[in-house]
Please model this.
Amino acid sequence: MEGVTDAPMRAVQGGVGAFTFAVTEFLRVSHAVPPRHVFHDHVPELRSGAVTLTGLPVQVQLLGGDAGRMAASAVRAHELGATAIDINFGCPAPTVNRHDGGAALLRHPKRIREIVSAIRAALPPSVPVSAKLRLGWDGIDAIHENAAMAAEGGAAWLTIHGRTRVAGYAPPIHWSPIGKVRERLGLPVVANGDIWTLDDFRRCRDATGCRHFMLGRGALADPRLARRVAAELGLVPREEELSEPFDWSSQLRQLVDWSHRFDMMQSDKNVSRLKQWLRLASQFGNFARFDAIKRTVTVSELFAALEHPA
Ligand SMILES: Cc1cc2nc3c(=O)[nH]c(=O)nc-3n(C[C@H](O)[C@H](O)[C@H](O)COP(=O)(O)O)c2cc1C
Model:
Protein backbone atom coordinates (compact mmCIF):
# COMPACT_ATOMS: atom_id res chain seq x y z
CA MET A 1 0.00 0.00 0.00
CA GLU A 2 1.58 3.18 -1.28
CA GLY A 3 2.62 5.52 1.52
CA VAL A 4 1.81 2.88 4.15
CA THR A 5 3.53 -0.47 3.72
CA ASP A 6 7.08 0.77 3.25
CA ALA A 7 10.12 -1.19 4.43
CA PRO A 8 9.73 -0.34 8.15
CA MET A 9 6.05 -1.35 8.06
CA ARG A 10 6.89 -4.55 6.17
CA ALA A 11 9.44 -5.37 8.87
CA VAL A 12 6.80 -4.84 11.57
CA GLN A 13 4.30 -7.01 9.69
CA GLY A 14 6.97 -9.69 9.24
CA GLY A 15 7.24 -9.80 13.02
CA VAL A 16 3.55 -10.73 13.28
CA GLY A 17 4.43 -14.16 11.90
CA ALA A 18 1.19 -14.62 9.97
CA PHE A 19 1.93 -13.57 6.39
CA THR A 20 3.38 -15.71 3.60
CA PHE A 21 4.74 -12.72 1.72
CA ALA A 22 4.44 -8.96 1.36
CA VAL A 23 4.24 -6.93 -1.83
CA THR A 24 6.02 -3.59 -2.01
CA GLU A 25 4.28 -0.32 -2.67
CA PHE A 26 4.17 0.15 -6.44
CA LEU A 27 7.31 1.34 -8.14
CA ARG A 28 6.36 3.50 -11.09
CA VAL A 29 8.04 2.89 -14.43
CA SER A 30 7.41 5.95 -16.58
CA HIS A 31 9.86 7.41 -19.12
CA ALA A 32 12.88 5.36 -18.14
CA VAL A 33 13.86 2.24 -16.26
CA PRO A 34 14.34 3.37 -12.64
CA PRO A 35 18.02 3.52 -11.65
CA ARG A 36 19.48 1.06 -9.17
CA HIS A 37 19.38 3.47 -6.23
CA VAL A 38 15.62 3.92 -6.69
CA PHE A 39 15.12 0.17 -6.37
CA HIS A 40 17.34 0.08 -3.30
CA ASP A 41 15.55 3.04 -1.66
CA HIS A 42 12.14 1.60 -2.47
CA VAL A 43 12.97 -2.00 -1.58
CA PRO A 44 15.89 -2.06 0.86
CA GLU A 45 15.11 -5.74 1.43
CA LEU A 46 16.81 -6.41 -1.94
CA ARG A 47 20.05 -6.15 0.03
CA SER A 48 18.98 -8.98 2.33
CA GLY A 49 17.72 -11.59 -0.15
CA ALA A 50 14.34 -9.88 -0.74
CA VAL A 51 13.29 -10.85 2.78
CA THR A 52 12.59 -8.44 5.65
CA LEU A 53 14.94 -8.67 8.61
CA THR A 54 11.94 -10.19 10.40
CA GLY A 55 11.84 -13.04 7.87
CA LEU A 56 9.02 -12.03 5.52
CA PRO A 57 9.65 -12.54 1.77
CA VAL A 58 8.98 -9.38 -0.24
CA GLN A 59 7.84 -9.18 -3.86
CA VAL A 60 8.56 -6.12 -5.97
CA GLN A 61 5.52 -4.45 -7.52
CA LEU A 62 5.94 -2.50 -10.78
CA LEU A 63 3.42 -0.13 -12.34
CA GLY A 64 3.50 1.22 -15.88
CA GLY A 65 2.03 0.90 -19.38
CA ASP A 66 5.10 0.40 -21.55
CA ALA A 67 5.80 -3.31 -21.91
CA GLY A 68 9.44 -2.87 -22.94
CA ARG A 69 10.34 -0.58 -20.05
CA MET A 70 8.37 -2.71 -17.61
CA ALA A 71 10.30 -5.79 -18.73
CA ALA A 72 13.65 -3.98 -18.50
CA SER A 73 12.70 -2.77 -15.01
CA ALA A 74 11.77 -6.29 -13.95
CA VAL A 75 15.16 -7.50 -15.19
CA ARG A 76 16.90 -4.79 -13.20
CA ALA A 77 14.88 -5.66 -10.10
CA HIS A 78 15.86 -9.30 -10.51
CA GLU A 79 19.54 -8.45 -11.01
CA LEU A 80 19.38 -6.50 -7.77
CA GLY A 81 17.89 -9.46 -5.91
CA ALA A 82 14.12 -9.53 -6.53
CA THR A 83 12.75 -13.07 -6.38
CA ALA A 84 9.21 -12.33 -7.61
CA ILE A 85 7.58 -9.52 -9.61
CA ASP A 86 4.00 -8.33 -9.22
CA ILE A 87 2.38 -5.98 -11.76
CA ASN A 88 -0.07 -3.32 -10.65
CA PHE A 89 -3.23 -3.14 -12.80
CA GLY A 90 -5.37 -1.79 -9.99
CA CYS A 91 -4.19 1.61 -8.80
CA PRO A 92 -7.11 4.06 -9.15
CA ALA A 93 -5.15 7.31 -8.62
CA PRO A 94 -6.10 9.79 -11.38
CA THR A 95 -2.50 10.95 -11.97
CA VAL A 96 -1.31 7.38 -12.31
CA ASN A 97 -4.20 6.50 -14.65
CA ARG A 98 -3.68 9.64 -16.80
CA HIS A 99 -0.12 8.46 -17.36
CA ASP A 100 -1.23 5.05 -18.60
CA GLY A 101 -0.62 3.10 -15.40
CA GLY A 102 -2.48 0.98 -12.85
CA ALA A 103 -6.21 0.53 -13.43
CA ALA A 104 -6.03 2.43 -16.76
CA LEU A 105 -4.84 -0.83 -18.33
CA LEU A 106 -8.11 -2.54 -17.37
CA ARG A 107 -9.63 -0.90 -20.47
CA HIS A 108 -7.02 -2.58 -22.68
CA PRO A 109 -7.02 -6.32 -22.02
CA LYS A 110 -4.56 -7.12 -24.80
CA ARG A 111 -2.06 -4.69 -23.31
CA ILE A 112 -2.33 -6.54 -20.01
CA ARG A 113 -1.30 -9.69 -21.86
CA GLU A 114 1.49 -7.81 -23.62
CA ILE A 115 2.94 -6.40 -20.39
CA VAL A 116 2.72 -9.65 -18.45
CA SER A 117 4.23 -11.66 -21.30
CA ALA A 118 7.08 -9.16 -21.89
CA ILE A 119 8.04 -9.40 -18.22
CA ARG A 120 7.59 -13.15 -18.18
CA ALA A 121 9.82 -13.59 -21.23
CA ALA A 122 12.53 -11.34 -19.80
CA LEU A 123 12.95 -13.19 -16.50
CA PRO A 124 14.26 -16.65 -15.70
CA PRO A 125 11.44 -19.19 -15.27
CA SER A 126 12.29 -19.49 -11.56
CA VAL A 127 11.07 -15.92 -10.91
CA PRO A 128 7.27 -15.85 -10.66
CA VAL A 129 5.36 -13.00 -12.26
CA SER A 130 1.93 -12.14 -10.86
CA ALA A 131 -0.71 -9.52 -11.59
CA LYS A 132 -2.85 -7.43 -9.26
CA LEU A 133 -6.20 -6.45 -10.79
CA ARG A 134 -9.42 -4.71 -9.93
CA LEU A 135 -12.64 -6.16 -11.37
CA GLY A 136 -12.68 -3.62 -14.19
CA TRP A 137 -12.67 0.08 -14.97
CA ASP A 138 -16.41 0.69 -14.59
CA GLY A 139 -17.96 -2.76 -14.84
CA ILE A 140 -17.31 -5.92 -12.83
CA ASP A 141 -17.59 -8.31 -15.80
CA ALA A 142 -14.38 -7.01 -17.37
CA ILE A 143 -12.41 -9.14 -14.92
CA HIS A 144 -12.96 -12.28 -16.99
CA GLU A 145 -11.22 -11.00 -20.10
CA ASN A 146 -8.54 -9.11 -18.18
CA ALA A 147 -7.74 -12.07 -15.94
CA ALA A 148 -7.64 -14.42 -18.95
CA MET A 149 -5.20 -12.06 -20.69
CA ALA A 150 -2.95 -11.92 -17.62
CA ALA A 151 -3.03 -15.73 -17.47
CA GLU A 152 -2.23 -16.01 -21.19
CA GLY A 153 0.68 -13.65 -20.68
CA GLY A 154 2.10 -16.11 -18.16
CA ALA A 155 1.02 -14.83 -14.73
CA ALA A 156 1.68 -17.48 -12.08
CA TRP A 157 -1.20 -16.17 -9.98
CA LEU A 158 -3.59 -13.24 -9.82
CA THR A 159 -4.58 -11.05 -6.92
CA ILE A 160 -8.02 -9.53 -7.39
CA HIS A 161 -9.53 -6.63 -5.45
CA GLY A 162 -13.31 -7.03 -5.73
CA ARG A 163 -14.10 -3.50 -6.94
CA THR A 164 -13.92 -1.46 -10.13
CA ARG A 165 -11.71 1.57 -10.61
CA VAL A 166 -14.78 3.81 -10.67
CA ALA A 167 -16.00 2.39 -7.35
CA GLY A 168 -12.77 3.46 -5.67
CA TYR A 169 -13.11 2.12 -2.13
CA ALA A 170 -16.89 2.49 -1.89
CA PRO A 171 -19.13 -0.43 -0.91
CA PRO A 172 -20.17 -2.97 -1.94
CA ILE A 173 -17.29 -5.39 -2.30
CA HIS A 174 -17.88 -8.09 -4.95
CA TRP A 175 -16.19 -11.30 -3.87
CA SER A 176 -18.08 -13.81 -6.02
CA PRO A 177 -16.57 -12.78 -9.42
CA ILE A 178 -13.16 -13.52 -7.86
CA GLY A 179 -14.31 -17.10 -7.29
CA LYS A 180 -15.61 -17.37 -10.86
CA VAL A 181 -12.22 -16.32 -12.24
CA ARG A 182 -10.54 -18.93 -10.06
CA GLU A 183 -12.87 -21.63 -11.34
CA ARG A 184 -12.52 -20.63 -15.00
CA LEU A 185 -8.77 -20.18 -15.15
CA GLY A 186 -7.60 -22.89 -12.77
CA LEU A 187 -4.85 -20.51 -11.63
CA PRO A 188 -4.17 -19.61 -8.00
CA VAL A 189 -6.20 -16.51 -7.19
CA VAL A 190 -5.61 -14.33 -4.15
CA ALA A 191 -8.89 -12.79 -2.97
CA ASN A 192 -8.71 -9.22 -1.74
CA GLY A 193 -10.93 -6.49 -0.37
CA ASP A 194 -12.76 -5.58 2.81
CA ILE A 195 -11.59 -8.38 5.07
CA TRP A 196 -11.87 -6.48 8.34
CA THR A 197 -12.84 -9.32 10.69
CA LEU A 198 -12.56 -13.09 10.94
CA ASP A 199 -16.20 -13.26 9.97
CA ASP A 200 -15.49 -11.23 6.79
CA PHE A 201 -12.64 -13.62 6.04
CA ARG A 202 -14.95 -16.64 6.34
CA ARG A 203 -17.56 -15.01 4.09
CA CYS A 204 -14.90 -14.11 1.52
CA ARG A 205 -13.55 -17.68 1.61
CA ASP A 206 -17.07 -19.08 1.14
CA ALA A 207 -17.91 -16.66 -1.68
CA THR A 208 -14.68 -17.21 -3.61
CA GLY A 209 -13.55 -20.73 -2.74
CA CYS A 210 -10.06 -19.24 -2.62
CA ARG A 211 -7.20 -20.57 -0.51
CA HIS A 212 -5.13 -17.41 -0.71
CA PHE A 213 -6.05 -13.99 0.66
CA MET A 214 -4.53 -10.55 0.73
CA LEU A 215 -5.14 -8.38 3.77
CA GLY A 216 -4.54 -4.67 3.33
CA ARG A 217 -6.22 -2.13 5.53
CA GLY A 218 -7.77 -4.79 7.77
CA ALA A 219 -4.37 -6.05 8.92
CA LEU A 220 -3.47 -2.54 10.03
CA ALA A 221 -6.83 -1.65 11.54
CA ASP A 222 -6.79 -4.81 13.66
CA PRO A 223 -3.23 -6.10 14.15
CA ARG A 224 -4.58 -9.35 15.59
CA LEU A 225 -6.54 -10.19 12.45
CA ALA A 226 -3.71 -11.61 10.34
CA ARG A 227 -2.82 -14.29 12.91
CA ARG A 228 -6.48 -15.19 13.36
CA VAL A 229 -6.86 -15.62 9.61
CA ALA A 230 -3.60 -17.58 9.35
CA ALA A 231 -4.79 -19.88 12.16
CA GLU A 232 -8.10 -20.40 10.36
CA LEU A 233 -6.10 -21.40 7.27
CA GLY A 234 -4.02 -23.83 9.36
CA LEU A 235 -0.82 -21.86 8.77
CA VAL A 236 -0.11 -21.05 12.41
CA PRO A 237 -1.36 -22.65 15.65
CA ARG A 238 -4.66 -21.35 16.94
CA GLU A 239 -4.16 -19.01 19.88
CA GLU A 240 -6.32 -18.29 22.86
CA GLU A 241 -8.45 -15.19 22.22
CA LEU A 242 -7.03 -12.36 24.29
CA SER A 243 -9.46 -10.17 26.13
CA GLU A 244 -7.06 -7.35 27.02
CA PRO A 245 -6.85 -4.40 24.64
CA PHE A 246 -4.16 -4.44 21.98
CA ASP A 247 -0.85 -2.85 23.01
CA TRP A 248 -0.69 -0.11 20.39
CA SER A 249 2.17 1.59 22.07
CA SER A 250 4.60 -1.28 21.65
CA GLN A 251 3.40 -1.91 18.08
CA LEU A 252 4.01 1.72 17.10
CA ARG A 253 7.38 1.72 18.86
CA GLN A 254 8.41 -1.13 16.57
CA LEU A 255 7.53 1.01 13.56
CA VAL A 256 9.57 3.89 14.97
CA ASP A 257 12.52 1.56 15.67
CA TRP A 258 12.47 0.08 12.19
CA SER A 259 12.10 3.52 10.64
CA HIS A 260 15.25 4.66 12.46
CA ARG A 261 17.07 1.56 11.28
CA PHE A 262 16.12 2.36 7.70
CA ASP A 263 16.93 6.01 8.34
CA MET A 264 13.39 6.90 7.39
CA MET A 265 12.08 8.57 10.55
CA GLN A 266 14.21 11.70 10.30
CA SER A 267 12.13 14.06 12.40
CA ASP A 268 9.14 14.43 14.61
CA LYS A 269 7.05 15.35 11.62
CA ASN A 270 6.82 11.60 11.13
CA VAL A 271 4.27 11.62 13.89
CA SER A 272 1.87 11.75 10.94
CA ARG A 273 2.95 8.24 10.01
CA LEU A 274 1.83 6.95 13.41
CA LYS A 275 -1.39 8.92 13.29
CA GLN A 276 -2.12 7.47 9.85
CA TRP A 277 -2.04 3.97 11.37
CA LEU A 278 -4.12 4.91 14.39
CA ARG A 279 -6.64 6.76 12.24
CA LEU A 280 -7.19 3.58 10.23
CA ALA A 281 -7.55 1.62 13.45
CA SER A 282 -10.07 4.08 14.81
CA GLN A 283 -12.09 4.18 11.56
CA PHE A 284 -12.12 0.47 10.86
CA GLY A 285 -10.87 -1.27 14.03
CA ASN A 286 -11.25 -1.02 17.75
CA PHE A 287 -8.92 1.85 18.57
CA ALA A 288 -11.15 4.19 20.54
CA ARG A 289 -8.75 6.92 21.60
CA PHE A 290 -7.90 8.75 18.41
CA ASP A 291 -9.21 12.01 19.86
CA ALA A 292 -6.56 11.81 22.59
CA ILE A 293 -3.65 11.63 20.14
CA LYS A 294 -4.85 13.50 17.08
CA ARG A 295 -3.51 16.89 18.15
CA THR A 296 -0.09 15.66 19.30
CA VAL A 297 2.77 17.24 17.40
CA THR A 298 5.78 15.07 18.17
CA VAL A 299 6.37 11.35 18.36
CA SER A 300 7.08 11.58 22.09
CA GLU A 301 3.89 13.55 22.73
CA LEU A 302 1.95 10.91 20.87
CA PHE A 303 3.41 8.10 22.98
CA ALA A 304 2.79 10.08 26.18
CA ALA A 305 -0.87 10.56 25.21
CA LEU A 306 -1.17 6.88 24.32
CA GLU A 307 0.50 5.55 27.45
CA HIS A 308 -0.80 8.02 30.04
CA PRO A 309 -4.35 8.95 29.11
CA ALA A 310 -5.47 12.22 30.73
C1 LIG B 1 -3.41 4.02 0.88
C2 LIG B 1 -3.48 2.83 -0.03
C3 LIG B 1 -2.41 2.57 -0.87
C4 LIG B 1 -2.45 1.46 -1.72
N1 LIG B 1 -1.36 1.19 -2.52
C5 LIG B 1 -1.35 0.06 -3.28
C6 LIG B 1 -0.19 -0.31 -4.04
O1 LIG B 1 0.84 0.38 -4.04
N2 LIG B 1 -0.25 -1.45 -4.77
C7 LIG B 1 -1.38 -2.25 -4.79
O2 LIG B 1 -1.38 -3.30 -5.44
N3 LIG B 1 -2.47 -1.92 -4.08
C8 LIG B 1 -2.48 -0.81 -3.34
N4 LIG B 1 -3.60 -0.49 -2.60
C9 LIG B 1 -4.77 -1.37 -2.67
C10 LIG B 1 -4.68 -2.49 -1.62
O3 LIG B 1 -3.58 -3.33 -1.91
C11 LIG B 1 -5.95 -3.34 -1.59
O4 LIG B 1 -6.15 -3.90 -2.87
C12 LIG B 1 -7.18 -2.53 -1.22
O5 LIG B 1 -6.93 -1.64 -0.15
C13 LIG B 1 -8.35 -3.47 -0.83
O6 LIG B 1 -7.95 -4.36 0.18
P1 LIG B 1 -8.24 -4.10 1.76
O7 LIG B 1 -9.72 -3.87 1.89
O8 LIG B 1 -7.76 -5.36 2.42
O9 LIG B 1 -7.46 -2.88 2.14
C14 LIG B 1 -3.58 0.62 -1.76
C15 LIG B 1 -4.66 0.90 -0.91
C16 LIG B 1 -4.62 1.98 -0.07
C17 LIG B 1 -5.81 2.26 0.82
The pocket of flavin mononucleotide is lined by residues 1-4, 25-26, 61, 88, 90, 132, 161, 192-195, 215-218 (CB under 6 Å). The two ends are 34 Å apart (CA to CA).
